[in-house]
Design brief:
By secondary structure, this protein is mainly alpha-helical. The protein has six helices and four strands; from the N terminus they run αββαααβααβ.
Amino acid sequence: MIKKGKQKESPFWISVSDLMSAVLLIFILVTMSLMYELSSSVRVKSRVYQLLSERLKEAGLKTDIDSRSGTISIADTVLFESNEALFKSGSKIFLNKLIPIISDVLLSDVEIEKEVYAVDIEGYASEQGHMEKDMMILSLQRSLGVWLHIYDMNQFPNKKKFLKIIKVCGW
């Protein structure tokens, strides 16, 4: 018997509300998981920046590291003569110090390694070139020269893995 003032609830609406609660719970769990992954990625990026900064400073290498993008900039005047793709004297010594540090920091820690998809070697050319085409060719020749030097270097930590993630780019 139904008491006066109370209506019998439909089991259909109870089931729908239970389903909606379950969907909301799943949404919350997925959101929390994504936020955790994002914060984990940010922590790893921060750690890479810190490790690279420390190691490069210890080695006495002058570079600029963009903490947001992870880009390590080396003035082209350090490596190449103006409008040339041939290395300056001392450039290979600089690269012989730099490359093992980068490889070691990026590929010696599993947590960091899984966040690294590629290492771009970008060759630049000054605007003193004759045409855009010539500048693109020069920048590609420079980045390829760096890649070939890395390939020819003596063994360093994770060399094989490092060579697999390098991309040669012109600018």
